[in-house]
Amino acid sequence: MNWREKVLDFNIANRGEGLTGLVFDVQKFATHDGGGIRTNVFLKGCPLQCLWCSNPESLSPQPESNFVPNNCIGCGKCRTVCPQDAIGDGKHDQSGLTIDRDRCTLCGECSKFCYAGAINILGRYVTVPELMEMVEKDREFYEESGGGITFSGGEPLAQPQFLKAALKEAQSRGIHTAIETSSFASWEVYEPILEYVDLVLADIKHMDDEEHKKVTGVSNRLILENIRKVSDLGIPLRIRLPLIPGINDSDSNLNAVADFVQQLNNVQSLDILPYHRLGEMKWRQLDFSYPLEGLEPPTLEQVKERISCLQDRSFKVSIGG
Q1: DSSP type of residue 187
Q2: Which terminus of the chain, N or C, has fewer Cβ atoms within 10 Å?
Q3: Which segments of the chain belong to CATH 3.30.70.20?
């Protein structure tokens, strides 16, 4: 089974029921993704399968395990404690371990006894009160810097009930709220959440629908329609474009993105996010091949040259989040 087949069972309307959310990371003292000092909460599950995804552990809407070969000390404790006999000998990069993911039930016993941190369970369920307890610890930093909380992923709209409850609670406490989203959700899911959002960071991957399908697995029509609707509501917007060499960095696509942004209201900036390979090793840790193997990241000078066609636009263009 390849990585796209593994995540195709995604049903965006039925994730995150109740007030419990599946979170795979919480980053404190983040200085991107919404302004000021922020707590970034990464929700698990995404209906897109972008070839360049730097967080492949976010794709599946279920907890999963990863294996970090360089951390393995070969003690064999994981094999001893696994009740499913899912861990065996075998060549796995530099380590003599393999994980049979069909047998693995994600009970977490191996991770519990892996003191070297070679095997980890990715994704844990948290309640809104538990999340707010973490967020509140940095309130003074939000207030001094104009920061707040940003929900990212994965796709935060994939857990709509939890997301809405958490945003509502944060706003009731006077904490600035933002979501970073692909906007790939029905308007019936999206609109009720926006009542509690102070800033939307909306991704655009490609303006050509067929190309968008090739590199993300889905059409861009719903995405662009939703971004227009958010704009019409008057909610502050930052449009984000991951700049991927040879995929969406042509003058024609950049100008198409700019033409689209030009028609929107309340756009604070178009943020260009240059391609990087920081997530490449994560793919291997999940037993997947990296889809863009061999693609080199652009230099800063190359990025500036590539986006020079945007310099005369009326909106702000920035490099980075």
Answers
A1: H
A2: N
A3: 64-122
Cis bond upstream, residue 154 (ω within 30): yes
Residues with Cβ within 8 Å of residue 133, at least 6 apart in sequence: none
Which CATH architecture describes the domain 64-122?
2-Layer Sandwich (3.30)
Beta strand residue intervals within the chain, DSSP E: 20-30, 38-43, 64-67, 87-88, 98-99, 119-122, 124-127, 148-152, 176-181, 199-203, 237-243, 267-274, 317-319
Predicted structure pTM score: 0.89
pLDDT at residue 90 in the model = 55
pLDDT for 220: 98
Separation between Cα atoms, residue 160 and residue 62, nearest integer Å: 15
Q: What is the pLDDT of residue 92?
A: 45
User: b/e map of 114-130 (b: 16 or more CB within 10 Å)?
Assistant: beeebbbbbbeebebee
Q: Which amino acid is at 209?
A: D
Q: Are 205 and 155 in contact (CB under 8 A)?
A: no
Count of Cβ atoms closer than 10 Å to residue 220 Cβ: 22
Within a 10 A sphere around the Cβ of 140, how many other Cβ atoms? Answer: 10
Q: What angle do CA 47, 230, 16 make, to 5 degrees?
A: 40
Rounded to the nearest 5°, which phi and psi values hold at 28? Answer: -95, 155
Report the amino acid identity of residue 130.
E
- Both tokens assigned to 5: 């087949």
In angstroms, the CA 229 to CA 241 distance is 19
Instruction: Name the residue type at position 23.
Output: V
Which of 21-35, 78-92, 105-119 is the least confident region?
A: 78-92
Nearest to 65 by CA among 102, 103, 111, 16: 111
Token pair recorded at residue 88: 């065996």
Please give the CATH topology (third level) of the domain spanning 23-59+128-319: TIM Barrel (3.20.20)
The neighbouring-strand residues paired with 319 are 272
